[in-house]
Design a protein that fits this description.
The chain has 111 residues and is α+β, with helices and mostly antiparallel strands. It has helices spanning 3-18, 30-34, 53-63, 83-93; strands spanning 42-47, 67-76, 98-99, 104-108. It is built from four helices and four strands.
Length: 111
């Protein structure tokens, strides 16, 4: 993430902090970052790093157990320009992902 993008991200997260929500931003490889958290510990994960099939599949596999039941896993670049992202998400989630925006997916983990 470039410095400008990081500043925008922190600015966008400020309302969460002010409202009392807690978040952890991991500035490292996504799969490595997942190892920091216990299974079922995370309420929300948003992935936007690797854009090839194998990488996205590794990320989904690493993060899904970390999401608590009722929590949400989402990601960016779920668009035809990144066919590896679309394919990995569809296969891993069994077609259950929903569009959260024009370019992002999300799925709520069953309770």
């Amino acid at each position: 993430v470039g410095e400008d993008a990081r500043e925008v991200l922190f600015r966008n997260m400020a309302p969460c902090v002010l409202s009392g929500l807690h978040y952890t931003m991991c500035m490292q490889n996504s799969v490595s970052a997942a190892q920091v958290f216990a299974d079922g510990e995370v309420d929300f994960v948003f992935i936007d790093s690797d854009h090839n099939y194998d990488g996205v599949l590794r990320e989904l596999t690493a993060w899904w157990p970390k999401v608590r039941p009722g929590g949400v896993l989402g990601g960016h670049d779920y668009i035809p320009q990144f066919p590896g992202v679309e394919r990995a998400v569809r296969e891993f989630l069994g077609g259950k992902a929903e569009l959260a925006s024009k370019t992002s997916f999300m799925i709520r983990k069953p309770v």
